[in-house]
Write a structure and sequence with these properties.
Elements (H helix, E strand, L loop, with lengths): L7 H12 L23 E3 L5 E3 L1 H4 L4 E6 L4 H17 L4 E7 L5 H10 L5 E5 L3 H5 L7 E5 L5 E6 L5 H9 L1
Parallel strand pairs: 3-4, 4-5
Antiparallel strand pairs: 1-2, 3-6, 6-7
Amino acid sequence: MTKSHVRGPTAAIALMLASLTFVPEGAAQESGIPVGSKGPDAAMETLDGAAATLAPVIAGKPAVIEFWATWCPNCKELEPALMAAHKKYGDRVAFVGVAVSVNQSTERVRRYTAERMVGFTHFYDRRGNAVEVYDVPATSYVVVLNKEGVVVYTGLGGKQDIEGAIQKALK
């Protein structure tokens, strides 16, 4: 099996993510985890390949979760806003990067995150578990949870009001 070969539900997720990386400004969101719902746990991997879950990282404090890829132009556009928010709120808010496994490897993600997105907790969603339970419509999808783990914001694209979303989570 090659790195780019996927089967079953993972193939559907890969096609969906790969085809939706460009999101027009102001596009209506028709999918994604509903605001007001509880943010679910998801089994993934650390960038070192160890089994890990999301729950311990986001437990008891607000969290910003971005579903991203190294090749995603919207993700790159969103990085400055995320890094500014991390600098301002990193002591009070968990910042989590969930790297989708479409057209990238853990090695590529590890190299990328060593230079960028420093200070985030990073996961690699090899099997698409987090993508599935969060109903992720595309890369650059952001979910913000309050300290009770309730979704207070979801957004898509390179221009999102991360600051405003965090303010909702901190209320």
